[in-house]
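Researcher: Good morning. I'm working through a list of sequences from a screen, and I'd like to move beyond sequence-only analysis. For each chain I'm collecting a predicted structure so we can compare shapes side by side. This is the next one on the list. No need for commentary yet; just the structure.
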Amino acid sequence: MFAGSRSIGKVAQELDCEVFSIDIHPFEGIDFVKDIEFLKLSDVPFKPDIIWASPPCTSYSIAAITHHRDNGRPKTDFAAKSDRVILNMLKIIKESDCIFYIENPRGYLRKMPFMQGLARETVWYCKYGHKNAKPTDIWSNNIRSLWNLDGWQPRPICHNGNRACHHEAAPRSSKSGTQGQRNNYERSKIPPQLCHEIMSASLRKIA
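Model: Good morning. Structure tokens for this chain:
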């Protein structure tokens, strides 16, 4: 869901998986164009084993949170819409009863009531070969733990200002780093190394 540039979908296809990509925009390779708020599980032509979802981050981002929200409550129509979209996304994930991953840049989404109770890890894209640091939250039911030893294991975290890392310095409001990328389509791309690690961990589980 919210497939965009199909970062995960392309890697899944390389691994001979059947992929069904959904987005509100008819980007290249999208199989089904629909607003996720109104998506039904019956719209998917097969029972999924893995769901990847990258919902829009705008109303949950640190940069825009005061414009869109007051202590988490929507102040704008866009923020209210964003909540409805994610609630339906969560409904579909629950109905599908499969391995899932929800990806969003680190921000306010982790504090929203409807995300509580879901296991979460934070990855740094620079640890997966990306030029930007981009700390990103991933919620999943397939994170490695004592009870899930073959689950996905994220790489060690980085930190802003880490001179030992290759990632670009990007002070807030600067034109470098992720903030400097020209549009949402580009900013939403996920590092191939991360996609491969997540898909490998998922395929181990369903093999």
